[in-house]
Amino acid sequence: LIILSTFLSYFTSLIIAIFLSRKVTNPIEELTQATVNIRKQNYILPVIKSNIVEVNQLSQNINYMANSLKSQEFNRKQYAQNISHELRTPLTNLRVNLELIQDGIMEPNEQNVSTLLIEIDRLTSLINQLNNTFKKSTPETIYNPTDFNLTDFLHEIFKSMKTQYNKAGVLFDMEISEDLDIHTDKEKLANIIINLLSNALKACQKNDSVLLRARPVSYTHLRAHETVLDL
Q1: Residue 186 needs a FRET pair 20 to 30 A away by CA distance; which of 20, 106, 121, 128 works?
Q2: Which residues does 11 contact at the CB level (< 8 Å), separation at least 6?
Q3: H or E stretch covering 220
């Protein structure tokens, strides 16, 4: 009886130990596989459930980390696409103008050289903005509004984008009122307008037309001397 009871207790303990070890090791193996998937940039993880509180907490933390990494990767790719789009426009303008000068179609006069310098300044500004994004910035450095003449500003953008439109065979014209003033971030407004004009050019076919128009309007919700930019 003693030998039998000893054997039964040992056998029962062994079964319980195997059962408990599987309850622990199976979720741990799944968590290990989840970390391998994260290393392979596969952030879609199964929900791991366990009766052990610590294992559940570890699973929740791993899933949270995976979601954070997925979000960061998406933001990084989106940011890279935005930066490449921002840089492509001034580079394209520079290339088109330089090719026209090289082919003798455009004269290297003061006005055309000034247009090239404006594109270089815009490219330099974009690079500086890119550098600032990797630094801890205050809201004042992110948005820097100033007073400037909107009419002259839009004329410069029109001249810089005109060559691209001419090369694509798309009619590009403007209707800009005189002496329009505005208070906003000049660099960011330039990026917005240039992006809109670049996207409009991509959507156009040969002989289509795009109009850049800016005029003062009077709406009840606008303050005096405010200007609406109409593209």
Answers
A1: 106
A2: none
A3: none
